[in-house]
């Protein structure tokens, strides 16, 4: 398996060194007191002791990460990060279990922990001056408790078949990042809130003719629509292409990946799978990221809790 020829994929010590380089670029960080580069190595290998007089705590690079106290070898974690970050449509726990030679249960557990590392919280708004943001909804997988037509939030919720599917809203900055939301119901109030809270006011919003976006023109610089029901998929106005093709492209990668690898995804886990597809999309080759970069970013995000770093006394 050529992809895994670098030592970090085959050897625990090399895997640990790789994690240390990524997570501690300025020297070991004590997870107890937050001091940077004021610790010395002790036994066993990979253990450090904080040199702050008030702390003196022992720690390793995996402390407070999903790798801490894991019985799975560190180099297999590094392989798993790489696999989930590089396969465009994801990788099933079954495939991970076979590739890594670990139990299915362990593979399932690892994959979910890695998805948590892919989640990005507290980001600023998408779009901005001169930028286009597309908004669109889709439906994927059956809801666990089907809604009836009368309680489906008419008139804005799709009735019939889609009424019992899980609604997903995607916002995509043209040529930039995606942000997705699994919502209980895609009605106007829900969608307006998401759009209002996640897109910069200065943006031009592109959607289809859906009434979900009825008030958007009051919020943004412009609201431009394509009329999908009459077969229009792109419209040109003053040299601008008006469409939602980026959002639809995202949905198509997501659905193909889900059908191919994660068809038994429970509704309560859907947001994690969305985080996985968002992460790969937002670190795609076109934006200058390769497989190694993507894995490194996920590994760096593996902190169990946020700590304020500080300088030694
Ligand atoms: Zn300390």
Characteristic key phrases:
about 325 residues; alpha+beta; five-stranded mixed β-sheet; three-stranded antiparallel β-sheet; 9 helices; 10 strands; about 35% helix; about 15% strand; elongated; binds zinc ion
**In sequence order, what are the helices and strands, one letter per element?**
HEEEHHHEEEHEHEEEHHH
> What portion of residues belong to β-strands?
15-25%
Q: Distance between termini? A: 47 Å
Low-confidence stretches: none
Mean pLDDT: 89
Tell me the overall shape.
elongated
Q: Give me the secondary-structure category.
A: alpha+beta
- The number of E-state strands comes to 10
Number of helices: 9
Bound molecules: zinc ion
Enumerate the strands of the largest sheet in spatial order, edge to edge or round the barrel.
6-5-4-7-8
Main sheet: strands, sense, barrel: 5 strands, mixed
Instruction: Give the helix proportion (percent range).
Output: 25-40%
The whole-angstrom Rg is 23 Å
Task: Tell me about this structure.
This protein has 313 residues and is an alpha+beta fold. 33% of the residues lie in helices and 16% in strands. The chain has 9 helices and 10 strands. Strand 1 (39-42) and strand 2 form a beta hairpin. Helix 2 (74-86) packs across helix 9, helix 4 (104-118) crosses helix 8 (270-282) and helix 7 packs across helix 8 (270-282). The longest helix is centred in the C-terminal third of the chain and has 17 residues, at 245-261. It is elongated and about 70 Å long. The mean pLDDT is 89. The site of zinc ion has 8 residues, from loops. Zinc ion (ZN) binds next to loops.
